[in-house]
Design brief:
three-stranded antiparallel sheet, about 300 residues, alpha+beta, rod-shaped
Length: about 300
């Protein structure tokens, strides 16, 4: 009786254990399936930040339809996505020492070049300049970055060579415009419409100390020249004043001479003699018959004026 009870108990216990094992196995399978579904879902979905685009590659083949910002889906395990910036990108090019038109080298030139790539042209540039794309600190790739660095340096050196070193510090805006035009022209020849240069900024422009001294001397000389020009203008005005004054005197004398007559002068002489006579203690010598006054009065000239 006891042995039979033991056999029944063992049979029941074994069935219970098998049921537990089956349930545990089922739970593990469900958990594994859920994890697999989660992994597949995670590998299938990705997001693209605002202003960026993603380029998908499936088994080495690039999809040239860029994926825009927001939530996107791809084939798990088979498709990879690379996020590129479609915003304005800045390239800082520092410590340049180009030669100016007068064959003098700058001590230091720092320039920032800003560019952007149209969203629908990113995949083409990715394929064409795969090695030139650079990954930023935020993990976003910058398309054709290396290409822009090389072309920008060449454009800067080219345009600096067109301006004298003594004029560069005055021609920053001209240099910026010239570099932008030169760089955009270079890019249009190889990649028309794919890369747009938005701005060029000269951040620092330091010439050689000897050039700085020459610039200071040139500025001082220019200031001296300006001062001399002012003095010349003042002298011209003074001369014009003197000329006008002389013209006035000459015109006045002309008027006076035209109005003088012998009778009027004789009248003035008589008045002068009267004043001499009234001055006590004075001696006045008068030529006999007033003949000596003809030398002073020039009566012949007076007669011509009277006529």
């Amino acid at each position: 009786m006891a042995s039979r009870f033991k056999r029944d108990l063992a049979r029941l216990t074994g069935g219970t254990l098998r049921n537990i094992e089956l349930r545990n196995t089922m739970q593990i399978k469900i958990i594994a399936a859920a994890v697999l579904v989660g992994v597949i879902g995670f590998m299938s979905a990705y997001t693209v930040e605002s202003g960026n685009v993603a380029v998908e590659r499936t088994l080495g083949k690039v999809n040239h339809e860029e994926q825009l910002q927001g939530l996107n889906f791809k084939m798990p395990f088979l498709t990879t996505s690379i996020e590129f910036s479609a915003k304005e990108i800045a390239i800082d090019i520092n410590d340049l020492t180009p030669k100016a038109a007068d064959n003098l080298s700058l001590k230091d030139l720092d320039v920032s070049v800003f560019y952007r790539v149209p969203k629908d042209r990113v995949s083409e540039l990715m394929v064409k300049y795969a090695a030139a794309a650079v990954r930023g600190a935020d993990g976003i790739y910058m398309p054709a970055y290396g290409l822009l660095v090389r072309e920008a340096r060449a454009a800067i050196y080219e345009q600096v060579s067109e301006i004298d070193s003594l004029q560069l510090h005055k021609q920053r805006e001209l240099l910026q415009s010239a570099v932008l035009e030169e760089l955009q022209g270079r890019l249009e020849q190889s990649d028309a419409g794919d890369i747009i240069i938005t701005r060029v900024v000269v951040r620092a422009l330091n010439t050689d100390p000897s050039i700085e001294a020459a610039i200071r001397e040139a500025v001082e000389a220019e200031k001296r020249l300006e001062a001399k020009q002012v003095q010349v203008e003042i002298a011209k005005k003074d001369a014009e004043i003197e000329i006008e004054r002389a013209k006035g005197i000459a015109e006045a004398n002309k008027i006076i001479n035209s109005s003088l007559t012998a009778e009027y002068l004789q009248h003035e002489v008589n008045k002068a003699l009267q004043r001499f006579a009234d001055n006590d203690g004075s001696v006045v010598v008068i030529p006999a018959n007033m003949q000596g006054f003809e030398m002073i009065l020039d009566s012949g000239q007076l007669r011509r004026s009277n006529q």
